[in-house]
Amino acid sequence: MTIPSRLEKANAIRALSMDAVQKANSGHPGMPMGMADIAEVLWCDFLKHNPSDPAWVDRDRFVLSNGHGSMLIYSLLHLTGYDLSIDEIQNFRQLHSKTPGHPEYLLTPGVETTTGPLGQGISNAVGMALAEKVLAAQFNRDQHNIIDHFTYVFMGDGCMMEGISHEVCSLAGTLGLGKLVAFWDDNNISIDGEVDGWFTDDTPARFEAYGWHVIRGVDGHDAQALRQATEQARGETRRPSLICCKTIIGWGSPNKGGKASSHGAALGEDEVALVREKIGWAHAPFEIPAEIYTAWDARDQGENSQSVWKQGFENYRAEHPDLAAEFERRMAGQLPENWQATAKQYIQETNEAAEKLATRQASQKTLNAFGPVLSEIIGGSADLTGSNLTLWSDAKPITTDDVSGNYIYFGVREFGMSAITNGICLHGGFIPYAGTFLMFSEYARNALRMAALMQVPSIFVYTHDSVGLGEDGPTHQAVEQTATLRCIPNMSVWRPCDTVETAVAWQVAIESEDKPTCLLLSRQGLPCQARDTGQIQNIRRGGYVLSDCAGEPQVIIIATGSEIELAMNAAQELAIAGIKVRVVSMPSTDMFDVQDDDYRQSVLPDYIRRRIAIEAGVSNGWYKYVGSEGKIIGIDTFGESAPAGDVFKHFGFTVENVVNTVKELLT
Fold this sequence. Notes:
- By secondary structure, the chain is α/β, with parallel strands linked by helices.
- It contains 27 helices and 20 strands.
- β4 and β5 (193-194) form a beta hairpin.
- α1 (6-24) packs antiparallel against α2 (30-45) and α7 packs across α17.
- The radius of gyration is 28 Å and the shape is elongated.
């Protein structure tokens, strides 16, 4: 059997990519055709992976940040032996296929993260590389390097133009993530055409300024030059590396190569035929010769690599049994045996202590209690550590010189921080959290959506959750943010009212396996509400009866967060007036919504139609709970700059207004 050349192997990628896009009449053939030679060198000569076990913990991570060129990774996964059949390749971009328009985590074996929104892939990759470095520092001992892998990224001009790439690559340079290697597809083309009119940065100099190791002017179609550059990048362990690859988008296309016309549309039947002729690919669409498959097949090598690693891990276990057990637990995503007991005890103690604290303070106390039993917890803040209170007592900062810690100073990089957090989560071995003001979740919104889409349990800690932050005014006062976060599918949003609800919210977030969580926390102090054991247990249901009356309630007041205090005080005054009131605390609407109908009816019976919702934010989401006959006390404008008490009074968050609103409802 003839051994295929590198070019022939790369041409298999080109053929599969153009044929799949052509069959779907949708997609991006240019990038896969332009980066095929780079992919062949990386995947055939360097990438450590096992197609038979895509979840092997010490595999190299490969991220296609320019995810629009998804047929590149699908071709690679199919050719190297992953569970991705030729039928799936032919089903590109079709309903329920494993080859969607952009790579999707959990859907396609071997896809490490969902990419497509440009810049997110490189950002996730920074998180993966950071996770690798921290995990290695925490577990590697002597000559036992049980964690020792690279993170490779393909990225294009679009990723470079997106601002998030600046945020994350700057931090990667500062932290010296030497096992992060990025290949820049410098083809000078984006959707609108040649980028000279809108992207003339000296990109290599930019990355050098970040502290990266930059390899300039590599011919992206010269296998020898690519191999040499990759070896050089792998040899630089103190700095992340950027390999600047000059490529021709749509390489092999006689009429569309090097042009924007090959970027985001099928080449056309006639042009596909011309490509076949030019690159010497005489095979029918989706036909790959046996010798090409054999040359690409990575299963035996992958099995051997993993077998060697497994033996090394057993040697490690023999010398460090406790560390080995802890490593296996963390990589399996299992919580410690004493977790439930620890959480239960702390919540009980918190209920008994009944402290009046801001929920951001309650959050920090919860971290102080939970952190010591969770070696996997890692997190930080976007330059608001002292305000978010995300630094707990035993946390250890991660620095360039010592990465064995668990606290990250992200700097003012909300979007980058959130995408890095997702990358850490995707890597495995950690429960990551990230903090900033709730208002600045706006900067990070796409990363939050990606976390929910990927079903990764990242935790986002958002303090200063309403107009209650006071004097900083409407630029910093969250009004619509809580409601819009609740609109994200598969996102759990908690707005606790006191120390106990905050502890439970953290417990639920830590135990989550398939969805991210947003914790919305107050700046101002809030009283602890009295509860019995049953009420404490019902907190995790998202909504529960906090205070009830004798007999059937005339009205139900629903509230969240800081407005619970207002609801309780109003209920007391209404009781004096002979009005029967039930107060429902609803810290998490999404958790309440998934409870069984019997439970939801026990809290909000359909036959009690007089209801009021109180929340210091936009009102539209609450009609679902109060109905057409109910009323909402909310804020449907921007905030005001003034002391918090004055702002709340200005917007009607007073006992008097709640009482009057209830009386109006009952007349």
